[in-house]
């Protein structure tokens, strides 16, 4: 199925989406740094970061985890 006729809305959803769509949205946002977490095709954990400082990465993860928890019932 093609996404050619799909309008992407800036809303929170409970439905999964493709990694390609999420990564393209991150590219389009012009981020100054990025952290990517996920599972590969074998089910193994995947981690990559453009931010070299592990403390800064952890700080970002904790801040965004707090935002996620605050929206848990949304």
Mean pLDDT: 89
Largest sheet, in brief, is:
2 strands, antiparallel
Q: Distance between the terminal alpha carbons, to the nearest Å?
A: 29 Å
- Give the count of helical stretches: 2
From N to C, what is the helix and strand string?
Answer: HEEH
Strand order in the largest sheet? 1-2
Radius of gyration: 14 Å
Tally the beta strands: 2
> Structural class of the secondary structure composition?
alpha+beta
- Which residues form runs of ≥5 with pLDDT under 50? none
Helix content: 25-40%
Strand percentage lies at 5-15%
What's the shape? globular
The figure for the number of domains is: 1
List the helices and strands and how they pair.
Layout: H1 19-28, E1 35-39, E2 45-49, H2 54-70
Antiparallel strand pairs: 1-2
